[in-house]
Amino acid sequence: MYHQLKAAQGFLELGDPDSAWEELESIPAEDRADQAVLWTRLEIYRRKQKWDGMVEIAQHLVQKSPDNPKHWLDLAWAQRRGINLPIAEKTLVEASGRFPNEATIHFNLSCYLCLQGKIEESKERLRRAIDLDPSFREIALEDEDLKDLW
Question: What are the CB-based long-range contacts (under 8 Å, 24+) for 9-16?
Fold first, then answer.
């Protein structure tokens, strides 16, 4: 499995999600539920903009490893594109309760709130993100999702 997984990740780095998918398909069925395999499949779905598949895998990863903030971020990201902003917002609100010191969660939540016109809530989340990680100040100034704050 290690060889196929590394090859799939290499194809993703080269911008070839189709070949990455083929490599994952060559992994024996009993090993396909491995978290690294699932995460690589999730990234393939992201690249191919297949939001339903990405949501499904991200939900599974959140259930299996609820203590990994990356899984929550991936789930909300896919929900934003494949379902809607309010569902993604709900996911990140729950995630922010679990991971109150995870700046990226607060930043993404700020973006989702801003896009829904919830400007004051968005500002609060952005302040929290910047307090946790000052690099988000510059990122925020460039992010199209936050343009209504300026």
Answer: 9/40, 12/40, 12/43, 12/44, 12/47, 15/47
Token pair belonging to 7: 């090859």
How much is the pLDDT for 63? 96
Q: Per residue in 33-63, pLDDT tens?
A: 999 999 999 999 999 999 999 999 999 999 9
**What is the residue type of 5?**
L
- Quote the CA–CA distance of 128 and 109 in Å, as a whole number: 11
Tokens of 35: 């978290």
Helical ranges in 66-135 per DSSP H? 69-82, 85-98, 103-115, 119-132
Measured between alpha carbons, how far is 78 from 98 in angstroms, rounded to an integer? Answer: 19
